[in-house]
Amino acid sequence: MNMNYVYYIRDATQGDVEAQFNLGECYRKGECVEQNYSEAVRWLTSAAQQGHLLAQCTLATLYYNGTGVEQNYKRAVKWYVKAAAQHSCEAQFQLGRCYYYGEGVEQDYANAVAWYRLAVEQGDARAQNNLGLCYSHGKGVQKNFTKAVNWYKHAAQQGNAKAQYNLGLCYENGEGVKQSYAQARNWYKKAAKQGYEQAKVRLSKI
Fold it and tell me: What is the pLDDT of residues 160-172, one digit of tens each?
């Protein structure tokens, strides 16, 4: 038997929060032991209840996806909120999505923008792209293509394929920037190289 697992079991049963998290991760990933999501949830919950940030975030994602537990967006939100309070960028981004799509909470674009901004402050490229989308569509903020382009650029420069595609669209349509098919193709190519199918389609048409 893997010695790490032995130590995790010993310490976790004695209430050690880090050991509980590590044990939960072992069960979740199938490392050291046979994969068992129910046991993963059990130990991650123990750690999360003691305020373990990564346990809270991981547990929230398990509830969000319905992995090892019945899918429950409200419980996902509960744990994301706890993790976000500890400045978890991942949790802040996920809460933004939950509010944007009305998953586990009442749909609220302004709240979505507020959570995305917190994640953006920590440099999260996905949040930068989604904030750009909010500006493009006027969701939670006044429609502003110039600001949308600004956030797409931040995310695109970090290698975010969705943002590269969205930036390409802005250049193709002349939204927030001077129309430039050359720039549009440039950004579509970057996204396409990462396997982003919509970018491949736009490249074939431009």
Answer: 999 999 999 999 9
CB 192 within 8 A of CB 199: yes
Q: What is d(CA 96, CA 182) in angstroms, rounded to the nearest whole number?
A: 33
Question: Which amino acid does the sequence have at 31?
Answer: E
**pLDDT attached to residue 138:** 98
Which residue in the block uniquely carries the two structure tokens 């209430």?
A: 15
Q: Residue 49: which residues within 8 A CB-CB, separation 6 or more?
A: none
pLDDT lower than 70: segments of the chain: 1-3
Return the half-sphere exposure (C-beta side, CA atoms, 13 A cut-off) of residue 63.
22
Contact, 20 vs 55, CB < 8 A?
Answer: yes
Token pair 């709240």 is found at 111
Burial class (CB in 10 A: 0-12, 13-18, 19+), 146: exposed
CA-angle at 46, arms to 43 and 51, nearest 5° = 125
